[in-house]
Design brief:
This protein has about 120 residues and is mostly beta strands. About 0% of the residues lie in helices and about 40% in strands. It is built from no helices and eleven strands.
Length: about 120
C-alpha cells in the first residue's frame, strides 16, 4: 500500500473471535467504532469498507468469488480484494485497510494524516 503511514489497531484477539459469515467475510470494529470487513485467502488477510461505494450495500452480506473479488449483495458489483478496484466495470473503488495477523491478535491499519487530518 505504498508509502502511507498507518496507525495499527487491534481488532480481534484472534481469528476465532471474529464473527464470520457463511461466505467467509468477517466484521470488526475500529477504535472509533467504525466497522470494517475482513477476508482471508490462504495466509493473506484483507480489510475493506463495510459499505459498497456505489449504493451502500453491506459488504459482509456479499460473498467472495473464485477470482479474488468481493461481490456486493445489492447490484453484484465486484471489487478486487488486492487493490479495491471495481472489476465488473462500473468505475468504483472500495476502500481497503491493510491487515496483519500477529502473535497477540489481528490488526488493521488506519491511514494517518491526509488533507483533512490537520489536528
Amino acid at each position: 500500500m505504498g508509502l502511507k503511514k498507518y496507525k495499527w489497531q487491534k481488532v480481534a484477539e484472534g481469528e476465532a473471535e471474529i464473527e464470520w459469515s457463511r461466505d467467509g467475510i468477517g466484521v470488526v470494529a475500529l477504535e472509533d467504532g467504525k466497522k470494517i470487513c475482513l477476508a482471508r485467502e490462504g495466509d493473506q488477510w484483507y480489510g475493506f469498507a463495510f459499505n459498497c461505494p456505489h449504493a451502500g450495500g453491506i459488504m459482509a452480506e456479499g460473498w467472495l468469488d473464485g477470482d479474488g473479488n468481493i461481490v456486493c449483495p445489492i447490484h453484484r458489483y465486484k471489487f478486487s480484494l488486492k487493490n479495491g478496484r471495481n472489476t465488473s466495470g462500473e468505475g468504483y473503488h472500495l476502500k481497503r485497510y491493510p491487515v496483519e495477523s500477529r502473535p497477540d491478535g489481528i490488526y488493521a491499519g488506519v491511514e494517518e494524516g491526509g488533507l483533512f487530518k490537520w489536528f
